[in-house]
Write a structure and sequence with these properties.
With about 80 residues, the chain is mainly alpha-helical. It has a single domain, classed as DNA polymerase, domain 1 (Orthogonal Bundle), CATH 1.10.150. About 50% of the residues lie in helices and about 5% in strands. It contains four helices and two strands. Strands 1-2 form a two-stranded parallel ribbon. The longest helix has 14 residues, at about 1-15. The termini are far apart.
Length: about 80
């Protein structure tokens, strides 16, 4: 029983952990709500050319991502 509980705690932490937009690859970025292959590539492109994101709000500067998308993603992403 304890092993099952430990497994469920580990699984929930993996499922609900934020995606680090400064380190995530395209596959990881595509797990985010509303981010497909093209937007994932744009995030990586922006990150490489600007030395990473300093805030989550900076996502609005990525081609194809607007303020509504950033608001939706705030609980799903991190910069650390």
């Amino acid at each position: 029983m304890i092993k099952i509980l430990a497994f469920l705690v580990l699984l929930s932490s993996l499922l609900f952990s934020a995606v680090n937009i400064n380190r995530a690859n395209t596959a990881q970025l595509q797990t985010l709500n509303g981010i497909g292959p093209a937007k994932a590539q744009e995030i990586i492109k922006y990150r490489k050319s600007h030395g990473g994101f300093k805030t989550v709000d900076e996502l609005v500067k990525v081609k194809g991502i607007g303020p509504k998308t950033v608001m939706r993603l705030k609980t799903q992403v991190s910069i650390r």
